[in-house]
Amino acid sequence: MLYRTLNYFKKILEKTRDTIKGQIKRLNIMPDRGIDRAALEEEADQEEEFVNQQSAAHTLKERLADIDLSLVNMRKGKYGICSKCGKQISAKLLKIAPESKLCQDCKKKAKKK
Predict the structure, then answer these.
(1) Which of 17, 63, 82, 84 fits 103 for a cystine, CB–CB 3.0-4.6 Å?
(2) What is the pTM of this model?
């Protein structure tokens, strides 16, 4: 992959990584209940909201791991190579999801399973 193209994807991945880290940090904040204890129903709603936030944070952490792996693969000269079949991942797919580990064909096969 050309250096310019790699640099382009590296900047996108790093910016996305920083954004996701900020989102995870915000999602991990427990809702403030204040000094006065809220009514039980309101407290239950806050707990449910926090559980939903944790679920979203988990999904973001998985994406963050994929981004970190992509950045490591860039340093190793393996970025843009399908981890399943070893073929080049198309630039079109990388523009949509720069942290992609699979080429389009392998993604299709994985969805069918």
Answers:
(1) 82
(2) 0.78
Domain for residue 110, yes or no? Answer: no
Q: Specify if 111 maps to a domain.
A: no
Owning domain of residue 30 = 3-81
> What is the Cα–Cα distance from 13 to 72, expressed in whole angstroms?
11
- Is the residue at 97 inside a domain? no
- CA distance between the termini of the chain: 31
Q: Which amino acid is at 72?
A: V
**Count of domains observed in the chain:** 1
The 10 Å CB-count burial string (b at 16+, else e) for 3-29 is eeeeebbbebbeebbeebeeebeebee
